[in-house]
Amino acid sequence: TSISALFADSIPDGKRSHYFTQRMMLTKLGSTAGPTVSLTMFAVLGNNWTTKDCATVMTFGQSICLPGIVILCFLSDRYIVEHIDNSESKTETSPEGKLSPTEKTETQQTLEQENERPVEEPKKGFLCIPGHRVVPVLIAIADIMSGCAAGMSVRYFTIFFIDDLKLSPSIVSLLGILSPLGQMVLHKLAHIGGEKIGRCQMAVCFKWIGIALMIAMILSYKHHFHVSIVSIFYLLRTSFMNATSNLTKSVLMDSVPRKERGKWSALESVNMFSWSGSAALGGFLV
């Protein structure tokens, strides 16, 4: 929560989509390190799903997290970018402490234009949500609902691979490598498309594609398609569904005041909690 708010505060307005995309691409690239190590270790240990081998791989993976935790200790609010208001920059004085004739003319013209500009009407609300809260509230609700749905499905993909597709540990690790790489590519495409047609429109488009691919994966398994076909649908579905977080996060941070970004970032904790709760429900249904 605090890291996301600090990261958003360190980026000037209007540039968050670009930097959030770069951050997510680096995060996905780092996500390939774990499956790569897992693939190597399982290959050395015998490529079998044994409790001892899985515990060895998990222990080594947890030890890799320590350097990242140490780096977080050096984060500080001192590195936040101070956003300068345009009105302040227009009233800067000359070295003599007074406005020059040219600056006076420019300032007067600017004030006249602002006075002639029609007063903007308050944004209309949606249902019981105030107008200025519509975008962040809807994004937060969508993220929580997606988290609930993901908790009931994504958590059990590995069991599906092992019990139904009979995939070996090395193949499952390989899927774990290819999936973040696909997400990296689509994160960049989503950013480019968001600049052309809009970030929210692009996010909705990618989500619908991901849902269609999920249905295609289920149908391909039900009709006994080859395991490779089912795996390809899984990779495409996962890549499209997880390639929009940079867009929605940047829209959310652009739509709330700076002092409230930490509070809205805290909703990610609720999202993670919904994952756990819905995963428990999914386990009961399974």
Structure characterization notes:
With 286 residues, this protein is an all-alpha fold. Helix content is 73%, strand content 0%. It is built from 14 helices and no strands. The protein has helices at residues 2-9, 16-31, 33-45, 51-72, 86-90, 101-116, 134-151, 157-164, 169-197, 199-222, 227-241, 245-255, 261-265, 267-285. Helix 3 runs antiparallel to helix 4 and helix 7 (134-151) runs parallel beside helix 14 (267-285). The longest helix has 29 residues, at 169-197. The protein is globular, with a radius of gyration of 24 Å. The two termini are 32 Å apart. 23% of the residues are buried. The model is unreliable at 84-100 and 117-121 (pLDDT under 50).
Q: What radius of gyration results from the CA coordinates?
A: 24 Å
Discrete helix count: 14
- Tell me the overall shape: globular
Q: Give the mean pLDDT.
A: 76
Helix proportion: over 70%
Class by SSE composition:
mainly alpha
Biggest sheet, open or closed, and with what strands and sense? none
Quote the distance from N terminus to C terminus: 32 Å
Low-confidence stretches: 84-100, 117-121
Number of strands: 0
Please provide the ordered H/E string of secondary-structure elements. Answer: HHHHHHHHHHHHHH
- As a percent range, the share of strand residues is under 5%
